[in-house]
Structures are given as C-alpha cells and as structure tokens.
C-alpha cells in the first residue's frame, strides 16, 4: 500500500434501513463486542482472554454464519468485519442472545483492518461468504478477492491456515480462482473448485440464491 492509502476497499457504504432493535444493539452492545479501528496491532490474548486460534470473516452480512460457526466451536475465537450498520446490529444481537464470548466485531474496511490491526502469521482462517460480485464490467475492479489482496490474506495466515470463499456468482469464482493462483504462498488442495465444507452453515442468502437457480461455487486455499 502506498502513501498510507489503501489500494482497495471491500465495500461501498449503503444507507439501508436499520431496525429499532438493531439501533439499540449498536448503541448498547458495541462497547462490549465491537473493537474500534485503530492503527495498532491487536493483542488477541488481551481481546479474548485466551490464546485460542483466530478466524476472521470478511463481510459477514447479518452475521448468521459468523455466530453459528462460533457457537459450534467455542474453543476458537472469531472476528467479523462488516460496515453495513444493520448487519453489525443484527450480529451484535446474535452474540448477546447466544451468549458468545468468542466473537468480536470490527465495523471498518477490511483492507485497512488487515493492514493496520492484524499481525502477520497469526490467523487460522479467513471466511469470505457471498461477497459482492460486482458483475458489471465497469465495476469488477471493486471486487475484494483479487491479487494483490490475496497476498495480504496469505501474509496474515499461519502456516497451514486457509482462505475459504463461497459465492453464487460463477464468474467471480472463476476470476478469484485465477487471482488466488497468483499468490505463491497459497496452494489449492483441490483440482479447481472445492467441495462444500461440512461445518459451514447454509445461510438464508444461499437458500434464496439456490431457489433462483443459482449455482454455489466454493474455493479453499491453504498457506504452504
């Protein structure tokens, strides 16, 4: 990244409707479960009170998969990154209602968070579930999963750590498959697209996409 500016952004801000319950969660729960963006490397032991492995979900939407996976793996810690206020509010409600001690949220751009807050060689896995596909030709430059951002992901992973991407946009997945292939530290344990990982929950978005005839594609890369 040059001159302190981030070369990509993982989002475009949206002014979607935030419910009263989501607003309340943002007001009341952010101080408990949200980590402020700072240009300072996180101390995960201080954040979670333990040395358990860390997984990061980038763009968690309404937080369903984030909190369901965290509930199923209490021996691991999870950080969700999202800028959509309604989604952050919904995720905070889930965390509180499910009494999850192993989840924290950062409401900021993922590229900036990774560069400024996440230590190198520290993350067990990255989850990128149904990122915005930016299907119009003039918008494809906005896609998150592309080189050299894939290098950034690899640099933050522990050896043996993984990046797991799922999308209903076959064009985006084919594009991402090539982009991941440009990062020398990542290897694909499959011939191309990956089989579905049994531990990943099926989201409402995924069910809707499948009902419309969408084909779900998955990518799974491991740090060598």
Q: Whole-number radius of gyration?
A: 17 Å
The rough form would be described as globular
Q: How far apart lie the N and C ends?
A: 24 Å
Which CATH top level class fits?
A: Alpha Beta
| Share of residues in helices | 25-40%
The number of domains: 1
Q: Order of helices and strands, N to C?
A: HHEHEHEHEHEHEHE
Q: What is the count of β-strands? A: 7
Report on this structure.
The chain has 224 residues and is an alpha/beta fold. The chain is 34% helix and 18% strand. It is built from eight helices and seven strands. The protein has helices at 20-33, 44-48, 64-72, 85-97, 110-117, 149-156, 170-181, 204-211, and strands at 54-58, 77-81, 103-106, 123-129, 157-167, 186-187, 217-223. The radius of gyration is 17 Å and the shape is globular.
Summary keywords:
globular; 224 residues; Rossmann fold; alpha/beta; 7 strands
In short:
The protein is 34% helix and 18% strand.
Please specify the SSE layout and strand pairing.
Layout: H1 20-33, H2 44-48, E1 54-58, H3 64-72, E2 77-81, H4 85-97, E3 103-106, H5 110-117, E4 123-129, H6 149-156, E5 157-167, H7 170-181, E6 186-187, H8 204-211, E7 217-223
């Amino acid at each position: 990244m040059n001159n302190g500016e981030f070369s990509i952004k993982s989002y475009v801000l949206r002014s979607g409707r935030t419910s009263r319950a989501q607003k309340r969660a943002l007001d009341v729960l952010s101080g408990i479960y949200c980590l402020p963006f700072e240009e300072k490397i996180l101390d995960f032991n201080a954040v979670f009170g333990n040395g358990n492995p860390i997984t990061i979900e980038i763009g968690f939407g309404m937080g369903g998969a984030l909190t369901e996976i965290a509930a199923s793996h209490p021996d691991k810690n999870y950080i969700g990154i999202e800028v959509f206020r309604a989604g952050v509010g919904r995720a905070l409600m889930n965390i509180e209602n499910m009494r999850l001690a192993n989840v924290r949220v950062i409401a900021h751009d993922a590229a900036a968070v990774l560069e400024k807050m996440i230590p190198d060689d520290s993350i067990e896995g990255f989850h990128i579930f149904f990122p915005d596909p930016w299907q119009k030709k003039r918008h494809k430059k906005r896609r998150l999963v592309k080189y050299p951002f894939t290098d950034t992901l690899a640099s933050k992973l522990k050896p043996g750590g993984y990046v797991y991407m799922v999308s209903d946009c076959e064009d985006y997945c084919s594009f991402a498959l090539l982009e991941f292939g440009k990062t020398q530290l990542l290897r694909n344990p499959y011939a191309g697209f990956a089989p579905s990982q049994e531990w990943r929950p099926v989201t409402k978005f995924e069910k809707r996409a499948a009902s419309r005839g969408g084909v779900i594609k998955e990518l799974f890369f491991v740090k060598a």
